[in-house]
């Protein structure tokens, strides 16, 4: 496996190859079985690994049990939140506090099977940057969870251009150098592959086992469709126009500009017959639309300014996944997603 | 509780600006309350503007050996900035802010500090509070509206007496008029905030009715909190909603006009309503674009914005562990 440039220049002493990240929110019954299952699944692989358990402000015994586990297993790191912040934040914190080269995220409620991690590692070794799980035999209610999620996944795939069958599956593997650079914020966990696509990663999708929930309640239900739609729009805009806000807004301004020109021309055409025949409401509407087009265009200029002083650099993103092939070197076997 | 209040120092910050009472008398009152805690303490007076008499009085107190630091600002910056200035000078683990005029009984300061045993911040709640029914109605309405904007309910955000642990102000940067929302912001940041009943000082009793200026201020306060709490993370959710509503209203009007044109022969050209509908459509589009621009700002700074606060990291291992999420991340900084 070729290691990206950044990691070579930044050696971290005794860095494990694998970090397994799991968020917990009131999962006192699940945390021990999950830890046991992870250890049982990873130990035979002979890969140095660590576990990052994020306690998302649980009010039950989760933290106490996690602390006990950490006491008996030094590979466990527990990150305790001040209060409940939600799954995206828990994942983001886990990613931040993980030291491994490959980060695997999974649910804390035993619905994912740690035995699948072996397949994820194999795929990563093939050269993929992100491997996404697909719960092909989902153990959730069909009507309230499966069907809405299929529609959402289809929509996400269409809009973002990253066709993933199951965005909601928490079991995912990332190259640390890549995912640590991707901004992750409020409720974006559904779209990690889509956001990450701004760096042009090689994404693979593999089938995973999915178990029915054994303990506790389901906490992260379906969010309102409105939020998902707006998030999608944001990601679409960001992913396709990251470094070109002016272009994005210029394209947007084309619509009102066109309407404005048509309305104004038709009004002027009618006005040729005589000044009294000019339809003022139509002429006025044309002017309004043209003005709007102009303002939108200049909003794009403002966007360029924002980008210039932000901390996102396209070159950095390109660096995350680029592979330099020098003379006398064979190219990696590369598999498209 | 991880850190009980042991022999820690207390830093009392008194921002002086606008309304203030006799310095020496008030200082004696506060000092008696703070000294009763039997902890080392210091007083930091921040003169927000030119206050010659107050400065002279403070000099006098300092000359007689009182633990006072006085910071004077050249012009009026506002109370929130004054608090931040005072905080820079503070060396205590526990920070207490007290108003420069007699608002609460000095003896109650100890109650606020004692409340920090099991919370991160305590804010005073003047009870029983003087005031006629108009005043009470105004206060109830204000705090009720605020509770609608942010989930926690406070009863007396106008109380200048607060006690909090040092890390609260280390994580929250106040500016403008935000000192009144310190409790709200601290709660949003994940700190435990409690309200403590304190006695109102006789001098603070006000039986009149506030004027339109105070109502305007209350209204602006609510809007400020709304934006700080609801809008800063996901601008498009806010702008998108208003934009979509405006757009749909305009679009519906256009559809209606077109139907009238096609089926009832009403010529579009003599309909001023066409202007209104175009305006609404365009406004919706513009609001939506503003939201997108806001999202762009958030996205390009997302790596500095942290949605979560880590209380602690637990690991029983030889290798050093980072305890605060705010500490520089070696992996990231080298890569970025």
Description:
The complex is a heterodimer of chains A (337) and B (336). With 337 residues, chain A is of the alpha/beta class. In chain A, helix 2 links the parallel strand 1 and strand 2 (49-55). Chain A is elongated. Chain A has twelve helices and seven strands. The relative contact order of chain A is 0.12. Chain A has two domains: 5-240, Alpha-Beta Complex (Spore Coat Polysaccharide Biosynthesis Protein SpsA, Chain A), CATH 3.90.550.10; 245-311. Chain A has a seven-stranded mixed β-sheet with strand order 3-2-1-4-6-5-7, with helices on both faces. Chain B is an alpha/beta fold and 336 residues long. Chain B has two domains: 10-231, Spore Coat Polysaccharide Biosynthesis Protein SpsA, Chain A (Alpha-Beta Complex); 235-300. Chain B has eleven helices and eight strands. In chain B, strands 3-2-1-4-6-5-7 form a seven-stranded mixed β-sheet, sandwiched between helices. In chain B, helix 5 (133-149) runs parallel beside helix 8 (212-231) and helix 9 (235-264) runs antiparallel to helix 10. The radius of gyration of chain B is 26 Å and the shape is elongated. Chains A and B meet through helix 3, strand 3, helix 4, helix 9 and helix 10 of A and helix 9, helix 10, strand 8 and helix 11 of B.
Q: Which structural traits does this protein have?
A:
heterodimer; A: 337 residues; alpha/beta; 2 domains; 12 helices; disordered N terminus; B: 336 residues; Spore Coat Polysaccharide Biosynthesis Protein SpsA, Chain A; 7-stranded mixed sheet; 8 strands; disordered C terminus
Beta content of chain A:
5-15%
Termini separation of chain A: 18 Å
String of helices and strands of chain A:
HEHEHEHEHEHEHHEHHHH
**Number of separate structural domains of chain B:** 2
Radius of gyration of chain A equals 25 Å
The CATH topology name of the largest domain in chain A reads Spore Coat Polysaccharide Biosynthesis Protein SpsA, Chain A
Shape estimate of chain B = elongated
Major sheet details of chain B = 7 strands, mixed
Name the beta content range of chain B. Answer: 5-15%
CATH class of the largest domain in chain A: Alpha Beta
Number of helices of chain A: 12
In terms of structural class, how would the helical and strand content of chain A be classed? Answer: alpha/beta
- Estimate the helix proportion of chain B, in percent: 40-55%
